[in-house]
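Lecture 7 notes: from sequence to structure.

We start with a single chain of 87 residues. Read the sequence below before looking at the structure.
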Amino acid sequence: MARKSAGAVRPVFHAPMRIDWTDDRLQTLSQEQLLSLLDNLDHQRAIGRIESDAAATLDRRISALLTGRNGSKRRKQVAVAAVGEPQ
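Now the structure, written as tokens:
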């Protein structure tokens, strides 16, 4: 039996922390996507996949793009995480 050589290629998944998050790329994301990226960033930082300094820099860049309501939601999440209480 011959193997198909010209089949459909499946997309390759890249973890969000392995993508170069330029300012242009961040600006194309919706508010929901930015919040999701921040949640993922917190998780990646907690398990040690990303350095704290790099995570803090990216956190500030993303937070600057959030609207007022989403920005206050993010500040509440950070405050709760700092206290150590469940959300």
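The chain is about 55% helix and 0% strand. Keep this in mind for problem set 3.
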